[in-house]
Amino acid sequence: MGMAVVLYSSVAFAAALIIVGLAQHKRRTSMLPPGPPGDPLIGNLLRMPSKDSALVFHEWSKTYGPVMLLKVLGRPMIILDSYQAAVDLLDKKGLIYSDRPKFTLYELLGWDPTLTFLQYGEKFNKHRQMHQSYLSRSRLEDFKSIQTQEARTLLRHLIQCPPDKYETFVSRFATGIITQIVAGHRITSEDDPYLRMSDIVSKAMSNTGPPGGSPIDFFPLLQHFPAWFPGASHIGVVKAYRTTVRELHEHPVRVVKTQQEHGEALPSFVLDRLEQMEDGEDVEDLKGSAATMFAAGETTTWSTLTVFIIAMVLHPEIQAKAQKEIDFIVGDLRLPEFGDRGDLPFVEAILQETLRSNPVLPLGVPHRATENDVYNGMLIPKGALIFANIKGMALDESVYSNPLSFQPERFLAKPGGAGEPHFNQAFGFGRRICTGQYVADNSLWIAIASILATCKITNAVDESGEIIVPDNTLTDGLVSHPNDMRCTIVPRSRGAKALILEAAV
Ligand code: HEM
Question: Which residues bind heme (predicted)?
């Protein structure tokens, strides 16, 4: 065989490879989910919303469908805008949809090891098991007395504090429950170290943009640049908050260990784990788990309760209807108890509508596909970030009528109500579903029922006597928080005030 034949054959073979490659690429590209057109190389970067991402994605989904592809700097992002698509992928195919992307910004902030951000694998299983075993349904009874006690303390704070402190005390309610569950510590003073840490950590979590979406997450090299460098501004957030985040890892375990040595530790997650710890076991896992529970459970509960309070300011008629229901079932001689829950369907509906109307994790926490997958003829590429658009699902008109209005009746059984499904999606999906959902649900219920039973929430009034209508918007962060909670909270009656003061411990 002559040299020329070898050369021609090689060129022909290479050409064939390129043609097959191009054909495969074309086929692959044509199978990708639809999405807004992007620019060469940078994809949709320039069109990515700077705020209200979940709402903007929901609008785009009306054009591109419930499974939508966005590309940012070559990184595929799939937005799931329908409950069905999220269940089909994240729940039913959990084996390949339960990973997380790398959250460089959160790692730099000191969140490590943190269940929320752990990649799917052995460490994830260990942390998930630690959380689930302590926060399981069967344990819920143990927490109810803590939750009831903190709800009563909250009532006293709300009627005694000036309006600009409402936020502080609602946050303290959430913190008070978590510190007791995690570290057996009851907050009794405003100087409590957990309150300081909680305040700083909440700020850190609501100022980081959508999870996994900061420029540092896309270009980890930016972490080595000064904060003034374009795209590196989050370095300032890291510097401001890292020490407190690390302190939150050290403090609970250090304190409970000392209490344990002195035989003074109260039951808690940390004590439970310390007692089970085997020789040589890494205490860093426990530190990470405790800090995660604290961070994941505090801001979410606080923000959701704030959403409820604003909804009551904006809808006095709904507040009055719930109070009528409570007066009928509970009366005015005692405060609501967990045992009343099944008899208060309208209060239940308000809780559900609070979770639906303004979900505090509007885009959840992104999952990551670990394999190529085909869904309804569309290719979900390996490595894609998968966002469940929880806010988008809340606005799905085929499930929720008048989705923009706050209408608890939608959840009441037919014919009195619309029989629409509860909004469990607020807690996420599949193998990454929120481990604290049952605790959160009970904390929210007892706080909502107790506030409605005893307090009247109305608009605040400014210096010139004008009624203030709170702006019903949320910040953009890992956890979103209402921007404006201006209102007035007073006891419903003298009897209600007496009940609050008697019950508070
Ligand atoms: C209103 C309150 C809460 C809401 C709305 C909420 C919502 C969520 C959501 C949407 C996720 C992401 C799920 C996913 O990736 O699909 C999540 C994860 C998580 N939540 Fe919650 N949560 C709340 C309260 C709590 C509480 C009280 C705790 C703990 C005491 C907690 C612990 C966690 C943890 C550890 C994760 C990460 C799970 C994992 O990655 O495997 N959450 N939560």
Answer: 434
